[in-house]
Design brief:
With 112 residues, the chain is mostly helical. It is built from 4 helices and no strands. The longest helix has 52 residues. The protein is elongated, with a radius of gyration of 14 Å. The model has no long low-confidence stretch (mean pLDDT 90).
């Protein structure tokens, strides 16, 4: 388990959980200032589960089946904490943070 692998799974987990947060009606109204469309909600939901699945795959590939699922659950916990804090104190920052996490995760993937 390297810090690069942990950061990769953490960034993907954060992006996935942020997408799932934005797919919820209440948070979508807060951040998009209007009634969210079903298409946008569905796109966020699919993207969120895709990123969470990619985080699981990255954790298992980098840490094997012995510690990979544990690393994945830890990264989900950390990502959820960051999403909750951002939605509580700075909701406008969650979209830029989630968007910025994806290129960082891609750059981190090259070092694994």
């Amino acid at each position: 388990m390297t810090p690069v692998a942990v950061s990769l799974t953490s960034l993907l987990s954060f992006s996935g959980l942020a997408c799932l947060c934005l797919s919820m009606d209440r948070h979508g109204r807060t951040l998009f200032h209007g009634r969210p469309s079903r298409r946008r909600d569905s796109a966020f939901r699919v993207a969120g589960w895709l990123f969470i699945g990619l985080a699981f795959a990255a954790a298992v590939i980098t840490a094997d089946w012995n510690f990979g699922p544990v690393q994945w659950l830890g990264s989900l916990t950390g990502g959820a904490l960051i999403v909750v804090v951002l939605m509580s104190y700075r909701p406008a920052w969650i979209r830029p943070a989630a968007i910025a996490a994806l290129p960082l995760a891609m750059a981190t993937a090259f070092f694994v």
